Amino acid sequence: MRLLSLIRKEFIQIVRDPRTLAMTFAMPVMQLLLLGYAATSDVRNLPMAVLDQDKSPASRELLDAYRVADYYRMRFDVLSEADLRKLIDQGAARVGMIIPRGYGDTIAAGQTAQVAFVIDGSDPTVAGTALSAAQLIGQAKSTRLAVAQMEQRGQGGAFRALIDVRTQVWYNPDLESAYYMVPALIGMILQFLATLLTSTSIVRERERGTIEQLIVTPIRPWELIVGKLTPYVIIAFIDTMEILLAGILLFGIPINGSLPLLLVLTALFLVTTLGIGLFISTISNTQQEAVISSMFTILPSIFLSGLFFPLEAMPVVLQTVSYVVPLRYFLIVVRGIVLKGVGLEILWKEVMALSLFGLVIMGAAALRFRKRLD
Question: Do 203 and 286 touch, CB atoms closer than 8 A?
């Protein structure tokens, strides 16, 4: 009977906290959806930029062969190699295809025509799929053309490939996965530490009753916020430098861009993550509740930001949801600076998005925190 009474008492305690109870039941459902739909590397519909310098029926047939294969989505028709490079630097295009002048005449003459593929190697999974598909589709089209010409001319003899697909992988030619993952760890760790530590630290003050002692002091609300957040900002920057140093020394990660720019934009991302943690602290009554609430923001950020799994492989619905995940934009920034060596002229859209997120989230968190203190 004593044991049953203890079990009954524990259930009563659980039911008295309906918010935490609801989140514990909702967490498995969210994990199931994220792992079931987002955790996939079956890449399709990669955005492609096409530079067709030939503009012939033969070049259009070649483009159709790549279009119907479902590996590529031809989103951009560029006029120069500079435009193609800019799109790949921005991450708007993952693949660039260049059909040279005279391609159609070379094919018609029964000679081998070269076609160039430029592939963004910053994501080895995507790049590997793009590389294999480019070569296989080109070989299949080359075989069909050769067979058709041999039948038309009634010629026998040795088989001759008519299309030579030349591939070039940028930024990460060896497709090293560490080059892709190590810079992204900065974003993941900052997201985890800043959100979790900030939310629990303020709730801990409330649980211990020390928040009331701070309220009666002459400290202003904004001073209290800055004072609570500053240590975590310092810790976050130490972690950032630690990851970069370890990446250089242990994995040979090249820092191709501006390190000061990376640190400035890291601070911008921190404003968002600290704001999320501060907001969670204002809606949580216990540390346990704060931790669970933090996980509801951390898990979607990890799965829907392109950290582990390519966004192109996800359903359209999840790709749309990913636009409201700040970590998505920071990963583009950190990988762009570290691997591609690009600057603000390429990353300005991501910087604007992070600035908007930081302003809205930190503003809402600060207002609610001040209201909670009052």
Answer: yes
C-alpha span between 303 and 326 (Å, rounded): 12
User: Which domains can be identified in the chain, with CATH numbers?
Assistant: 46-170 (3.40.1710.10), 176-373 (no CATH)
Q: What percent of the chain has pLDDT over 90?
A: 15
Quick one: tokens of 167?
């591939």
Distance CA 348, CA 82 (A): 18
Report d(CA 146, CA 205) in Å as an integer. 76
Question: CA-CA-CA-CA torsion for 114, 120, 124, 128, nearest 10 degrees?
Answer: -20
126: Cβ contacts below 8 Å, ≥ 6 apart: 43, 46, 94, 120, 310, 312
Report d(CA 242, CA 250) in Å as an integer: 12
pLDDT above 60 for 301: yes
State how far the Cα of 177 lies from the Cα of 77, in Å rounded to an integer: 30
Confidence of residue 350 (pLDDT cuts 50, 70, 90): very high
Q: How confident is the model at residue 194 (pLDDT cuts 50, 70, 90)?
A: confident
Rg (CA), the chain: 27
Mode of pairing for the β-strands spanning 72-77 and 163-170: unpaired
